[in-house]
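Support reply, case 0932

Customer input (verbatim):
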Amino acid sequence: MNKNNGILISLEGIDGCGKTLLAKNLELELKKQNLPILLTKQPGGTQLGIGLRKILQENKDQTCPMAEYLLFAADRAQHIKNVIKPALNENKIIISDRMADSSVAYQGYGKDLDVEKIKYINSWAMQGIKPNLILYIKINIETAKKRIFARNEELTSFEKETEIFWRKVIDGYSEIFAKKKNVYILDGKMTPNQLTQIALDKILTLYNK
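Our regenerated output:
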C-alpha cells in the first residue's frame, strides 16, 4: 500500500454532469472501508473560499472574467496550503470537486482568457501539486440542462450561460485532457451507482499500489 503519501483525485465536468453526487458517494464508500478520506471542493474548501464564492455570487453581473479567474486562483492557493498539503502528509485519499482544470475550461476556453497564462498561474497557486487521478464525467449539454432544471433551485451564474459557452467549455475539456495520462473519462449518462463503482475501483487500484 502507498504508505508515504496520500493521493489526490480531482472530479471534473460541466455543471449537471453528476460530479458532486459522485464525490459524496465515493466518500461514503471509502468510509465503509475505513479508509482515510477527505472530501473537499474548489472553490469553497476553505473559509476564504466560502467568502470568495459569496462575493462572486453577489457581484456576478459586475465581475469581469479576469477578476473572476483571479478570485478562483486565490481560493486555489489557500486550498492547497490549508487543506490539500496537510491531507497528503496524513496519507489521506483526497477527493476534490473541481480543481485547476475547471478554470482552464471555464475561464480559458469558455470566456476566452489566455489559456497558457491560466495554466501558469494555476501551477504557481498549486505549488506544483497535481492530481494523481482526474475523473472527467463527460456529458452532453442537453442532459446536463435537464438535470440542472430538475433540481428546481436558483441557477448559478454559470448555469445561466449560453449554449455557445457550454460548447466551448466541453471542447476545452477535450483539448485539456487529450494529452494527459492521469485522466479517466466516465460516461455521464451512466447511473450514479455505475459511476461510483467504476470510479471507486480506479481510486482503490491507485491507492493500493
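We compared this against your earlier run and they match. Two observations from our side: The helical segments are 19-32, 47-58, 65-89, 100-110, 115-125, 141-150, 163-178, 192-207. The mean pLDDT is 91. Please reopen the case if you see a mismatch on your end.
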